[in-house]
Amino acid sequence: xxxxxxxxxxxxxxxxxxxxxxxxxxxxxxxxxxxxxxxxxxxxxxxxxxxxxxxxxxxxxxxxxxxxxxxxxxxxxxxxxxxxxxxxxxxxxxxxxxxxxxxxxxxxxxxxxxxxxxxxxxxxxxxxxxxxxxxxxxxxxxxxxxxxxxxxxxxxxxxxxxxxxxxxxxxxxxxxxxxxxxxxxxxxxxxxxxxxxxxxxxxxxxxxxxxxxxxxxxxxxxxxxxxxxxxxxxxxxxxxxxxxxxxxxxxxxxxxxxxxxxxxxxxxxxxxxxxxxxxxxxxxxxxxxxxxxxxxxxxxxxxxxxxxxxxxxxxxxxxxxxxxxxxxxxxxxxxxxxxxxxxxxxxxxxxxxxxxxxxxxxxxxxxxxxxxxxxxxxxxxxxxxxxxxxxxxxxxxxxxxxxxxxxxxxxxxxxxxxxxxxxxxxxxxxxxxxxxxxxxxxxxxxxxxxxxxxxxxxxxxxxxxxxxxxxxxxxxxxxxxxxxxxxxxxxxxxxxxxxxxxxxxxxxxxxxxxxxxxxxxxxxxxxxxxxxxxxxxxxxxxxxxxxxxxxxxxxxxxxxxxxxxxxxxxxxxxxxxxxxxxxxxxxxxxxxxxxxxxxxxxxxxxxxxxxxxxxxxxxxxxxxxxxxxxxxxxxxxxxxxxxxxxxxxxxxxxxxxxxxxxxxxxxxxxxxxxxxxxxxxxxxxxxxxxxxxxxxxxxxxxxxxxxxxxxxxxxxxxxxxxxxxxxxxxxxxxxxxxxxxxxxxxxxxxxxxxxxxxxxxxxxxxxxxxxxxxxxxxxxxxxxxxxxxxxxxxxxxxxxxxxxxxxxxxxxxxxxxxxxxxxxxxxxxxxxxxxxxxxxxxxxxxxxxxxxxxxxxxxxxxxxxxxxxxxxxxxxxxxxxxxxxxxxxxxxxxxxxxxxxxxxxxxxxxxxxxxxxxxxxxxxxxxxxxxxxxxxxxxxxxxxxxxxxxxxxxxxxxxxxxxxxxxxxxxxxxxxxxxxxxxxxxxxxxxxxxxxxxxxxxxxxxxxxxxxxxxxxxxxxxxxxxxxxxxxxxxxxxxxxxxxxxxxxxxxxxxxxxxxxxxxxxxxxxxxxxxxxxxxxxxxxxxxxxxxxxxxxxxxxxxxxxxxxxxxxxxxxxxxxxxxxxxxxxxxxxxxxxxxxxxxxxxxxxxxxxxxxxxxxxxxxxxxxxxxxxxxxxxxxxxxxxxxxxxxxxxxxxxxxxxxxxxxxxxxxxxxxxxxxxxxxxxxxxxxxxxxxxxxxxxxxxxxxxxxxxxxxxxxxxxxxxxxxxxxxxxxxxxxxxxxxxxxxxxxxxxxxxxxxxxxxxxxxxxxxxxxxxxxxxxxxxxxxxxxxxxxxxxxxxxxxxxxxxxxxxxxxxxxxxxxxxxxxxxxxxxxxxxxxxxxxxxxxxxxxxxxxxxxxxxxxxxxxxxxxxxxxxxxxxxxxxxxxxxxxxxxxxxxxxxxxxxxxxxxxxxxxxxxxxxxxxxxxxxxxxxxxxxxxxxxxxxxxxxxxxxxxxxxxxxxxxxxxxxxxxxxxxxxxxxxxxxxxxxxxxxx
Length: 1536
Ligand SMILES: [Zn+2]
Ligand SMILES: [Zn+2]
Ligand SMILES: [Zn+2]
Ligand SMILES: [Zn+2]
Ligand SMILES: [Zn+2]
Ligand SMILES: [Zn+2]
Ligand SMILES: [Zn+2]
Description:
Helix content is 49%, strand content 7%. By secondary structure, it is an alpha+beta fold.
């Protein structure tokens, strides 16, 4: 490009010519060719122009001159780990990339880890995002923000400006182009050919597509170019936000945003990314962009609501990046009135209202419901705007916030009273009404409502204004409610009040009262901030009408009570659900809790007698308590029991409500407490139910907008942490000193929780040998604004209610009262006494005690009823036989009463003379008490005696059972057999299994019991066959070469096992013994039954019947074969006399001759393979086809040889020749193994101390080694001392010796000496002695030097050995180390990061959805995805199952990284999930990674998984898991 005068025109011409040629999307797209051409023809020239030189030099220069800002801004990939600091992040949306996190101070803080869903960027360097440590080490070094343009030359700035302006304009033009048959001006191609119209349209269309493809390419290119320099970035921002000639909304950025919903998905994400890396990374333009975004907010949201793509593909989603920046949010509130905009936009989308103007979600169409779901994201925006609270208020901010608050009140007004319900009588409702939408709205708004209050609390002026506004709106709401409510007068005990006639059970009632509740919240704030005392004249307190305030919350609470009393059964489940959510931890803070506060507010402002009468009236219980002797009516036979039951429940509920009104004072502002006290109390009550894990507690506590419960700061004060063992999780236990704060009627308990807590606390008291009364705890004092509510306890109506109920209890009329009614009255009395005691104890001079509950309950009732005093009735009830359970509580009440009396006497200024009567009264009471105590003691002793008897009986029963148990289980289980030993045991001199010194073993009688027929059976060769249930499976646990796959198992020759042990078999048994015929009958029955069942029901079982699998009839262990139970096979032959037996040389000669003879007798086809076994060690003409000594596992060879030997040499039944054979075979194989070890040992001579370099053994080894050197053509390394060789032989041969000892022990039956069963220094010598080997193993060679020289020579001269020594092939060296699972990192996020860098191996760089790590070999797999399915035995299987066959011969152990879950697989149909070995600090796993606490490797748990693998228990573990959880059977494991 030359510096033409009209650059834009030239560029457009160039693009018009070449873009359609390069991006010609034909039938064979070639993206790589397109990219290459675009770079050369289109982008290259622009880079040259921009740099003014070769961009290969220009860009690095730019980069070097760049002074990058502090911001990291890394845009996250899907699945990439992100970190947020719970201590320092301003809100949970502030996150760091892994690199920044690891270099930040937050590593040491309480952080949370999540995996990114894609989109969003790293906030490192953003000082507004972090309260502390905003920079990581890397970004801290960067310079502070100056004008980035100073680092660029004038020329460069001008050129960049030119080219960016043209290219950005071009890209925006073409991407937002809407005409199909026309190109934007300047891009029309000169069309020479005359074509018909339709064809032309098509050409035109393909040109547009080509330009659009390039337009996207261009945006990506711009993003890359500005990455070189912050100056270029700023220029691009400037270009993008520059207003065009058309004024408002004419900048390129505006144009793109406003056509967002018209663009396709791919185009959107490309330009969103560009916005993120340009506008949001430049502090100056971020602000300007935020203003553009806010101005267009309404339009963007409306577009989004109409759009059908997910939010992450909408430009609206950028709100989180803008609104969460506190300074931007504040600026937008003030300058753009953002709060109001968001709320108004939201309201505009919810137009469906009822006649009172409230939201109506009933009969929502599908489209409306869809819109409603999308519109909810606006609430999230509101939350972002409010999430950081202002420290300083300006008048502008006050004004705009209150304007926003007005809008918010309008929103709440539309919710006040929505979804009203009426009790259904007669018929059940026909259709469950829609209720979820309203609750969704409430739930989403919960945090916003709380945050609005938080904002108000920060500024007194704002608080007062907000309070007034809220009150006004509440009054407006109420004015619409008065229909059909006539005034009536209520009176009890000489008090009367006017109220309205309204029955919850007959008229409309709504659960949604957000305006009332907001007012309650603000009222508490007034109380807390003491504004009410400082500026009472500013508050509209006189305008408050308490009966009006309490009316609707009270109705709502009465509704809950009536539902509980079963009065609303016909209204179906929707109501039950609503009541559930009303109390639920997610909603209660702004629903139930606030209703209680509103009632507390009401009581504290009105005559408590009036309050109680209104309450009685709303509970529809007024008649009962205003009519004397009401209880007596129930005596009549024709009383409707349901109605009585109903009323009893309502009375209980009402008493509960009064308990809550008086006792719930842990909201700061209601009582004199702080937020810490509140959360402590919640935790105390949760842990009163039972000890809980951290995550359970978190779930039970309300989270704030930052997802914090505040628990961590207080938990240590109230609970002790108990670490988990190998299973389970860590638990918090309540500290004993905290149980005194337990309140049985804690308002957040569900009914089930309440009864569990009661039970647990009583049990605790019994354990501590205390009485079981659960008296109300001592409460903190109320705030002054609420102080007078306590008088409700001593009001006349309250005393009347208490008295009436106690009277019923005294009369013991079985209909009129219930025990829980009485229990609640006792609790209320207790509360009043605690209160009075507190008052007296904190008494100071100026205080006058106005709380005189004790005096009032001592007074008997007045005429005409003349009822006894409450105190008198309590004393009566104390001895009532039907109230045994409440006795401790009544006793506690009377004790407290007396204590208060004493307090009063001591505190009263004029000492009360002790009157005679008083003393007598006290005396008689003491006597009474003593008598009661004596009786209680007798009762206790009797109870203890009975308990002792019972436990004695229990022990007896267990003892009996134990025997029974032993017969059926234990004895049959592990020990399985009783050895009847009727002969003197083997002398404990040396035990030897082989050779001339073989220990003589007396034949042992072994008697076992069949688990199926329970008959005893002696194990003998000629008695009925016994078998053990067993499971045989292929195994690669010992494999030293997992890549070796048996290609064609049918043709595989298993005769020789390679020392790599790449695939073997494992057989295990649960040890349960059956008669062979009993087992056969059982097995046939299982087969028949399961096959029928599977055909009929198409169900899967945890075991595969078709493959012969069955479960052990006793322990249900997975089995697929049986093993015959035999006496030791070679133990049958007794006396051995080796004196006339051949030595090794002679024996081998004989054997060789016999084999030759056999070859002649048999033809090759039918020849037994067993001869080959021995021939592999003996020189012969067949050697060429047999494996060389390096490629044979010697223990396998030993076993095969010993077991097959009788087949070759079967003439002699005396056992002598067999014994000789065993010994010679063993010695021969041992020597072969020694040679094997010497050939392959990689021993380096080093300077280690040599204990005895010239000992006999050392010299002998060195001689043998030299002999080997001779015969391997000196290819073997030169060794000067035998000491190292001795050491490597001993170390290398130990596993072989141990296996051999086990083998011969079971073969011959000679007991193994205890010394060889424990690892120790002398184990080697004891093994040698048991196996009839000289301690100096080299002696074996010397004793048989003649034949051995020949043999060793033939082994060494093998071609393969030569190749190995020349380094042309590998060989296994000894001792083989046992395999372990792979090493896992301590920090789980390393694995997440590893997985996020892993891409599917089959789909060219795409990220894998379920990256899964093989714990055996460490391979990462792309699991649970079609891309990586392969065919295995004619079936499509997922990557894990396929890998399982290659790596674990059918058994696999994986870690699903995104899920943090261990996966066990066996075969194609079996699998289960297993707890991961990663725990958080609270001793819990996080399956699914939902909580995001930092996770660390628990080594013990990982060892346990490793052990399961090493012991071949994976299949069995799966079986047990599937038996326990049938849903696991249905999962398509093969697709993982
Ligand atoms: Zn970063
Ligand atoms: Zn950083
Ligand atoms: Zn931190
Ligand atoms: Zn049997
Ligand atoms: Zn069993
Ligand atoms: Zn593997
Ligand atoms: Zn894949």
